[in-house]
Amino acid sequence: MSTVRIGVADAALDADLDIPDEPTGMVLLAHAGDGPRRPAVARGLNAAGIGTLRLDLLTGHEDEFDGVTAALHSDIELLTLRLIGAVDRLTEGLVSAPHTAGLPLGLFGAGTGAAAALATAAARPRVAAVVSHGGRPDLAGPSLPRVRVPVLLIVGGADTPVLDLTERAVRDLDVAEVHVVDGAAHGFEEAGALEEVTTQAADWFNRHLARAAARR
């Protein structure tokens, strides 16, 4: 794994890049705020042959979540602009990994990062598939009907508020499936919950990134 700095929109963001031998595609994992378990998801995708770029859409100062910066965690327009910038950099080929430019690309969004992932997919045809993990797809609002790629929305069965919001949002998506992790709450801390998330995400990306590669 290596750390890369990506200049996006109005900020320079640090990201963790991990590319296995002969990757089948690249997935950009985006969230707005620290997620201690997300490295485990990235490692699972790497084990499935998928390269990953794990990116916090907020800077270290913005992650502090004080009274001044708290609103940034739900500023979908800002998060989307930054994620679009990261997608464009991957499309161009990162300096430390130029061969990423030719790989099919997927987005994995968590929390408000899920809304940014969907809005980015609507804006960038380069994106071939999206996974929302316990996220807020509803916050993507008017972008949802413009998403034309397959979307998998993974929700905890015990996370009733997010489950309800997800079921509403999915009506506006073109191609979407909802996977409910039985008994899991919002943090997916239950035994086996995160492993199920990783397995579902890896299967989704491998299937749809392979199709995207075949169409080229």
Fold and architecture overview:
This protein has helices spanning 38-47, 76-92, 112-123, 160-169, 193-214; strands at residues 2-8, 11-18, 25-31, 50-56, 105-110, 127-133, 151-156, 176-181. The chain contains five helices and eight strands. By secondary structure, it is of the alpha/beta class. It has a single domain (2-214), classed as Alpha/Beta hydrolase fold, catalytic domain (Rossmann fold, 3-Layer(aba) Sandwich). Strand 5, helix 3 (112-123) and strand 6 form a beta-alpha-beta unit. The mean pLDDT is 87. The protein has an eight-stranded mixed β-sheet, sandwiched between helices. Helix 1 crosses helix 5 and helix 2 packs across helix 3. The longest helix has 22 residues, at 193-214.
Summarize this structure as a short list of keywords or feature phrases.
single chain, 216 residues, alpha/beta, Rossmann fold, eight-stranded mixed β-sheet, 5 helices, 33% helix, globular
**Largest beta-sheet characterization:** 8 strands, mixed
What are the low-pLDDT stretches, counting only 5+ consecutive residues below 50? none
As for the number of domains, it is 1
Shape: globular
Structural class: alpha/beta
What is the CA-CA span between the terminal residues? 29 Å
Q: Provide the CATH superfamily.
A: Alpha/Beta hydrolase fold, catalytic domain
- Please list the strands of the largest sheet in the order they lie side by side: 1-2-4-3-5-6-7-8
* CATH topology grouping: Rossmann fold
Q: How many alpha or pi helices? A: 5
| CATH structural class | Alpha Beta
Order of helical and strand elements:
EEEHEHEHEEHEH
Please report which band the strand proportion falls in: under 5%, 5-15%, 15-25%, 25-35%, 35-45% or over 45%: 25-35%
How many strands? 8
Radius of gyration: 16 Å
Q: What share of residues is helical? A: 25-40%
